[in-house]
Amino acid sequence: MNTLIINGSGAIGSSIVEELQGSDTNLIITSSSGEKVHDHDSIEWRYNGSSSVDELFSIIKGQYETIDSVVNCLGSIFLKPAHLTKEEDLDATLDINLKSSFFILKNTIPLMRKNGGNILFFSSAAANIGLVNHEAIAAAKAGVEGLVKSAAATYSKNNIRVNAIALGLVESNLSKSIFSNDMSLEISRKMHSIGRVGTPQNVSKFVIPLIADKTSWVTGSVINIDGGLSTTKIAS
């Protein structure tokens, strides 16, 4: 089985790679600097619009006839109210979160049409609940969720399943500004009814069944892995 982990050197991507260690999966990993990820070689690659995705998949098609699973770990966290958000900030947020997913989906389909497979994207609890200063990222992730549901319908005839995991706050390089501020971190922690924020391992353990089980009966789903952020409310 060939599994592509895009941005596999990031916190969540790296944790997914670690979970797949020792399995019968052939890992294809991208990283921004081409470093090894848990002793696995990676393709040096940075997302820079649709042409960069075309270039990546051109490399992959030169080595593999099919791909069984794809996980897009690209993303960003942008926290500003709408009236303080510049157009270029909105464009960048939509680009790395939504457009990257669209172009990856577009390039993946030809490699899955023969045997089917699984495609997994990441959303955010912010797409479904009102969180202060999340307008740009909420819009981008809501777009990802719409993409997942439509693509799942379109490609079900090809036995291709498309899903997303919607996250709460997870410790990673993207969230280091929050984790480095004790007050912000405490506020964020209290928003999660389970009483703590997430780790990459909390996420990766749920990823594996979604990408490894070719008989999965799950498609078009957005699964909340968010410590209760989007589904429960703590009484004050």
Q: Could you give the topology of this structure?
A:
Layout: E1 2-6, H1 11-19, E2 26-31, E3 43-44, H2 50-61, E4 69-72, H3 87-112, E5 117-124, H4 135-154, E6 160-167, H5 176-179, H6 182-191, H7 200-212, E7 222-225
Parallel strand pairs: 1-2, 1-4, 2-3, 4-5, 5-6, 6-7
Helix pairs in contact: 1-7, 2-3, 3-4
Entry summary:
By secondary structure, this protein is of the alpha/beta class.
Query: What is the CATH first-level class name?
Result: Alpha Beta
The termini sit apart by 49 Å
Percent range for β-strand residues = 15-25%
Give the SSE order as H and E letters. Answer: EHEEHEHEHEHHHE
In quaternary terms, these chains amount to single chain
Taking the sheet with the most strands, its summary is: 7 strands, parallel
| pLDDT < 50 runs, ≥5 residues | none
The backbone outline, from C-alpha atoms, is globular
Mean pLDDT score: 92
CATH topology: Rossmann fold
Number of domains: 1
Structure, explained:
- With 236 residues, this protein is an alpha/beta fold.
- The protein has one domain (2-170, 199-225): Rossmann fold (3-Layer(aba) Sandwich).
- Helices cover 40% and strands 16% of the residues.
- It is built from 7 helices and 7 strands.
- Helix 1 (11-19) crosses helix 7 (200-212) and helix 3 (87-112) packs parallel to helix 4 (135-154).
- The longest helix is centred in the middle third of the chain and has 26 residues, at 87-112.
- The mean pLDDT is 92.
